[in-house]
Specification:
Radius of gyration: 29 Å
Helix content: 40-55%
Oligomer: single chain
Number of strands: 0
Length: 83
Amino acid sequence: MASITIRNLDDDIKQRLRVRAAEHGRSMEEEARDILRRVMGEDAAPRNLAAAIRARVASADRVDLELPARGPMREPPALGRTQ
């Protein structure tokens, strides 16, 4: 088995790891191993942002809106032009 050392770890992160380890009844080292195992075990490919958005809104209730009829375009204003 390999070993690693983590330097310059924020005090807040270390404290949170200590509390989390205590909640799970194990050492900080074992808690860190468990976190790394779970995160590194996720072999999912990077998600496509468009696909993620589509999946998120796919189940939303959709409403079909009736669009008003379009009329002819207006004449542009005569700015600074004299007639």
